[in-house]
Design a protein that fits this description.
- With about 400 residues, this protein is mainly alpha-helical.
- The protein has a domain of about 110 residues.
- The strands form two sheets. It has a three-stranded mixed beta sheet with strand order 2-4-3, covered by helices on one side.
- Strand 3 and strand 4 form a beta hairpin.
- The longest helix is centred in the last third of the chain and has 25 residues.
Length: about 400
């Protein structure tokens, strides 16, 4: 349970953050997507009006100073980080900020790109697994054959996804109580020509699947756990329920793109297969390795584009050379996602999130996992506040 002092503080922060979001949207270097890409508190929290960036920075400095008096150690750290991130975004708009610093100051992750050895390690692991599964040839040939065997035709994606969603709900509800009935869950729509593989529109209860890339059944299962259960739908549902019960913080009703919570928002969703223990065989193990590899090459491509300043076409060609499944559409959509300077750093949330969370999950005692799940889903987290749970359990 969070203290009343922290919940009151969260409402004040949320009001200030919405005011900063308005400044960001109006700034020439901002964008229409904004800092708050979904606001489930619409109408309940009034944005603070700021005349300019300097006035907003003054408010944030005061909020950061007062966060040290919050009773919960993890909330003290989280709000200090959130204030630092928000101030850094404003300073970026005003003065500029190098790409590695945006990763560090916005997401609270190291600003280091995936190395060649990182990517080679994933390729080696995938080739070893595929060889054990009976696939022949080099890695590219093995991946092509794997994709061919596991492909779901575009006109069957919706039906297969619906079956997987049903099982995902049941497995998740056994792990953590979903404060809703199944008819509140997500419906499937398919789409084309978008920069996302899939997205959860919590407001309309829709999960949209992009059928341009080649899609496999194991990949659809991953999208179920990421976008729906126990991923984004469950995250939003529990946050919203806590807020309306008076036990949750106000900023937890925001989906924030540049935030210390971004890494764990994506990491918790990407860890769904581990949390549910939903591995039916080597195909599922392969797609987990492939997901990590794809996040790595996308982050490396973003680094080449935004830090090294390589030409867009050169980066696209590099990404195409590295990609092993998904086809040309996957390359096109990843480039579309990482190309805007306002969003290029967000791919680090996918690259770092799952291994951070999974490593903690695997180290803590099985008896501590229910409490850890409440801690994860009940409040927003940065990479550092997730580790605080593990540290507290060891004392």
């Amino acid at each position: 349970m969070l203290s009343e002092k922290t919940i009151r503080y969260s409402h004040e922060f949320a009001s200030v953050f919405l005011g900063v979001d308005a400044l960001y949207r109006a700034h020439p270097d901002g964008d229409h997507i904004g800092l708050v890409i979904m606001n489930l508190a619409e109408g309940a929290i009034t944005p603070t009006r700021f005349a300019d960036i300097d006035q907003a920075l003054t408010h944030l400095l005061d909020l950061q100073y007062r966060s040290v008096d919050l009773p919960e150690p993890d909330r003290r750290l989280f709000y200090q980080q959130l204030c630092h991130t928000t101030a850094s975004i404003l300073k970026w708009l005003r003065d500029g900020l190098p790409f590695p610093d945006r990763i560090r100051d916005f997401l609270h992750l190291d600003g280091i790109p995936p190395s060649a050895s990182d990517l080679d390690s994933f390729r080696t692991q995938m080739q070893s697994l595929l060889t054990d599964m009976g696939y022949h040839g080099d890695l590219r040939a093995q991946c092509a054959e794997w994709e061919k065997r596991n492909r779901v035709p575009p006109d069957e994606v919706k039906q297969v996804m619906e079956v997987l969603l049903d099982e995902g709900w049941e497995r998740t509800h056994r792990l953590i109580s979903i404060p809703a009935t199944k008819d509140d869950g997500l419906s499937v729509v398919t789409l084309s020509s978008d920069h996302f593989n899939a997205r959860c529109d919590y407001r309309t209860r829709i999960v949209a699947i992009n059928i341009d890339p080649v899609i496999t059944r194991p990949a659809l299962k991953h999208l179920v756990v990421h976008e729906a259960y126990p991923g984004h739908y469950v995250q939003f549902k529990i946050r919203q329920t806590h807020y309306h019960n008076g036990t949750g913080t106000a900023e937890a009703l925001f989906s924030m793109l540049k935030s210390p919570s971004s890494c764990l928002f994506e990491g918790l969703a990407d860890s769904g297969m581990h949390l549910l223990e939903w591995f039916e065989g080597d195909d599922d193990r392969f797609i987990m390795l492939m997901n990590r590899y794809q996040a790595g090459i996308a982050a490396a491509a973003s680094w080449r584009l935004h830090h090294l300043g390589l030409a867009h076409d050169d980066v696209r060609n590099w990404l195409r050379d590295q990609a092993l499944i998904g086809g040309e559409a996957w390359v096109s959509h990843r480039m579309g996602y990482i190309s805007p300077k306002q969003r290029g750093m967000h791919i680090w949330s996918y690259w770092k999130g799952e291994p951070i969370l999974t490593s903690v999950w695997e180290r803590i005692a099985v008896d501590d996992r229910p409490v850890f799940l409440d801690y994860l889903f009940g409040r927003l987290h940065s990479p550092q506040t997730v580790h605080m749970f593990e540290q507290n359990q060891s004392h």
